[in-house]
Amino acid sequence: MSSSNGTSWHQLDADDVYARLETDPDRGLPPGEVARRRDEYGPNAMPERRGPSALVRFLLQFHQPLIYILLAATLVTLFLQEYLDAAVIFGVVILNAVIGFLQETRAAQALEALAKTMTTQANVVRDGKREQLDSEDLVPGDVVLIQSGDRVPADLRVVHVRELQVDESALTGESLPVGKSTEPIDAETPLAERTNIAYSSALVTSGQGKGVVVGTGEETEVGRISEMISGAEDLATPLTRQIARFSHILLAIILVLAAATLVVGVLRGESWIDMFMAAVALSVGAIPEGLPAAITITLAIGVARMARRRAIIRKLPAVETLGSTTVICSDKTGTLTENQMTVQQVHTRGGRYEVRGGGYAPEGEIEPVEGSADVASDKGLRECLLAGLLANDSALESKDGQWLVRGDPTEGALITAAAKAGLSHSEVRQEYSRIDVIPFESDHKYMATLHAGESDSSRVVYVKGAVEAIAPRCREAINAAGEVEALEPDDIQADAEEMAARGLRVLAFARAEVSSETEHIDHEIVEKGLTFLGLQGMIDPPREEVISAIRECHAAGVQVKMITGDHALTAAAIAEQVGLDGKGRENAGGLPEVLTGRQLEEVSDDDLTRAVEDTTVFARVSPKQKLRLVRALQGNGHVVAMTGDGVNDGPALKQANIGVAMGITGTEVAQEAADMVLTDDNFASIEAAVEEGRGVFDNLTKFIVWTLPTNLGEGLLILVAVFLGITLPVLPLQVLWINMTTAVLLGLMLAFEPKEPDLMRRPPRGSHQAILTRELIGRIVLVGAILLIASFSMFQVALASGESLETARTVAINTFVLIEIFYLFNCRSLTVPMFRLGLFSNRWLLVGVAVMVVLQSLFTYAPLMNRLFATAPIGLREWGWILSFSVAAFVIVEIEKWLWRMVVSRKKRTAEGDGAQLSATN
Ligand code: ATP
């Protein structure tokens, strides 16, 4: 065998390719050969994508406005020969960079690892059998089948195509899908024009094909250029951007205040050195050093919590956006329902039949309803079931007594129904060999297969699909005696609607005779006219947990809309069963209004803006219309989460604020475009992710509200001292001690705060809403002022009572820290009284406080710390005062929270009163 690289595979014809790779187009490679080649060529994995080097990423950590200040402070203190201060400030800078670097690396790795858990699968023919395996296991010579929605798993020399189109934009930059063919082409043809090669990682946008693997892993074209595809995930989120803007403002304020400190002090005759140190203290005090780390850590905790609830985040900003979601647009099949299909009814011209038994086990009778023909004597019934078996790509298998579908559950149900009438899948498939196929796509909504017929003189096409796609093309039907009779397509529609109104998913079956020479079929065959065979109606029960998830969403002010490819009546019936009646906001009772794809086509953009608010169910929607719906909702100011699984759902998923792809049934294309992937395809997991997203944002806000008063208090303390001409109550080094230890041991513990019980009872946060509301800014100023007054007066009292400067400063610092500890408990909820949360519901916080108390005792009493930080032991009387201040601060904040609750509930009552008055006058 020649090696897989260096050969111009596109130039060879298919037989040459088989010969050189020693493989068989129908049987594939034998198992022994696979193992040998796997050893020789290694796994079919991409080399690691290289982002910026670790050093560059580390250096980038210093590229932040607030770090510039700290670097400047290092230089100033160096210049003043305050080496210890310089070392500690620089140490903090380094520590920050290290934490930032590690966090960023971990977050990127975690996202990558999560993405990797969803490996690409490949359909391969080996040893004459078709199997599905990890694309990593492919070797050169493997025969691979691809179809729309797949990612091409390796470089393939295409040997069979069926309207195969591939999106190779990642490789060639060509944004339109390109058609593939099998003919050999000139050796000199450039890469982008090699129509008989499907390149690894390209996406199949339509059709089907078969190819022989000619390059794996690094030997693929993408493998060679993989450096060009940047693997860098965007880790910036709306919140981090808001914080970055805030940092710039803070930088300006600090610079002005530091300059003012310097000028005022020097004008008053203080020494330059002292004033420089005061400016440095002010700067390091006002910077919230722990903030960036707290944000990344809280987001990372959010990602992990979501993964535990079966929602895999692919893009970090999604964690935050989820919290402000106002509308969830969900598929029906598999997301709101179980995707466990069972045929319950079959209608033919000969009669109506009830199919007994549940699940995929071929056990149960088919019973004619009164007045219908016998099962055995209705030839139309046999044909209808036969069509379901033949126009079918799936299979059933029994594992440990359980019957499972390999493939599409809709098709699985058809196999079971046929088996109940004694038609064996394997026998029928052998008898009627398949010659050609038009695969199912959501756009045309049917599937057709060409078979050798019973007589040699004809071939037959079996078609199955949505009733609307089949019925209008049927002019005749097969009756119970097997004869052709005339038919009104409207009769089929009426019949189907009756089944759909009961929530059944209805498929229509038809056939067409074609000449014995026919080798290929295309859409024309269906257009020409079909012979109707029958309808099969299957149930797909709603998922139990979805009902409560939808109720939760409604309570949380999140609308839920069903957007499905299925029939309007089926959709409405299921919607009602899962509690999606009324306007998708509350239970208004009755069947929900449905807008169909056809109606959507006629609605103007303006009307759609209104309709999209009032309608809960959209049926027979094409993927393109999904995109229009997302845009209309966004035009109304909504933050939209949209699910998708199909190959054409990509644009809608990208457009949605949160694109949600299905992990089990979703195509690679959909997963690629999504921000989040559900490992269980379940709607309830979206609701869980929204809840977690809200939790993350809530905890981040708590951290910010907790941390900023410290910086404000410290800044003011130094400013006041300088302006009043008093010795500095805290030194730069001491300020850094406070900021760093409390941020890590106290503030960060808020990230572990459990979700508040009313989290899903609040309305969604406005997407453009600032993190800090007026109320919270008020609280930050209040606590900042308390910190200032308490520490300043404690410092002055200590000095006045004859204590040393070191002791007075230690008193001031401990005042700061203890008030922060008490305030931490206030911050466990922004609105609810602290005692309602239960003292032990966040144990991490208690551990943090305990460690902080120990550290602070060392800071105050350990001789080494006293020397390092210029502190001194303080007495019990001082502790008594500090504790009193802290308790007072705690009580004041709780009272402030209570007052706000009063204001809010009065506002709500007034609004409700107005509403009631309004409806009374109406
Ligand atoms: P949802 O969009 O909620 O997942 P869906 O599965 O019904 O619902 P599509 O996959 O777009 O949406 O299918 C549209 C219609 O095409 C279905 O209602 C059904 O009538 C028909 N259909 C679905 N699967 C097949 C198939 N494998 N072969 C033929 N027709 C199918």
Give a nutshell description of this structure:
The chain has 922 residues and is an alpha+beta fold. Helices cover 48% and strands 17% of the residues.
Give the helices and strands, then pairings:
Layout (H helix, E strand, L loop, with lengths): L13 H8 L9 H11 L12 H7 L4 H15 L3 H34 L4 E6 L2 E6 L8 E5 L7 E13 L1 H4 L5 E2 L17 E2 L4 E13 L5 H4 L13 H30 L4 H15 L4 H18 L2 E3 L3 H7 L3 E4 L11 E7 L2 E5 L10 E3 L10 H12 L4 E5 L2 E5 L2 H12 L4 H7 L2 E5 L7 E7 L5 E9 H4 L3 E5 L5 E3 L2 H12 L4 E11 L7 H5 L2 E10 L4 H12 L3 E5 L4 H10 L16 E3 H6 L2 H10 L2 E3 L3 H13 L4 E5 L5 H6 L2 E5 L5 H6 L2 E3 L4 H42 L7 H14 L28 H27 L4 H22 L16 H19 L1 H7 L6 H46 L1
Parallel strand pairs: 9-22, 9-25, 18-21, 22-24, 23-24, 25-26, 26-27
Antiparallel strand pairs: 1-2, 1-3, 3-7, 4-5, 4-6, 4-7, 8-27, 10-11, 10-21, 11-12, 13-14, 15-16, 16-17, 17-20, 18-19, 20-21
Helix pairs in contact: 4-5, 4-9, 5-10, 5-26, 8-9, 9-25, 9-26, 10-25, 11-25, 12-13, 18-25, 21-22, 25-27, 26-28, 26-29, 27-28, 27-31, 28-31, 29-30
Bound molecules: adenosine-5'-triphosphate.
The site of adenosine-5'-triphosphate has 18 residues, from helix 13, strand 16 and strand 17.
Describe the main β-sheet briefly. Answer: 10 strands, mixed
Number of strands: 27
Shape: elongated
Beta-strand content bin = 15-25%
How many helices? 31
Structural class: alpha+beta
Helix content: 40-55%
| Mean pLDDT, all residues | 87
Low-pLDDT sequence parts: 227-233, 583-589
Cofactors, ions, other ligands: adenosine-5'-triphosphate
- What oligomeric state is this? single chain
Distance linking N and C termini? 85 Å
Q: State Rg.
A: 35 Å
